[in-house]
Specification:
Layout (H helix, E strand, L loop, with lengths): L42 H22 L8
């Protein structure tokens, strides 16, 4: 390996996930990680979806009247 070319080499960035819905595994090494994870439905996922819908609704209402803002 040429140390002068060390910073010129192309790198690859990627991430691996077990399950987009969460997992009950205690350690990440207890599961098979993949770049095509499954999606399970859990109460935590349902809660986060409901929360996202509430936040989306709040932003939609705020966008209806953008001139009514407060400054800190």
């Amino acid at each position: 390996m040429n140390p002068n070319k060390l910073n010129q080499e192309a790198s690859a960035n990627f991430f691996l996930i077990d399950d987009l819905g969460g997992t009950g595994a205690k350690h990440y090494r207890d599961v098979e990680l993949t770049n095509e994870p499954s999606v399970s439905i859990s109460m935590e996922v349902v809660h986060n979806i409901l929360y996202a819908l509430k936040v989306s609704s709040a932003f939609k209402e705020a966008d209806k009247n953008p001139d009514n803002s407060t400054t800190l």
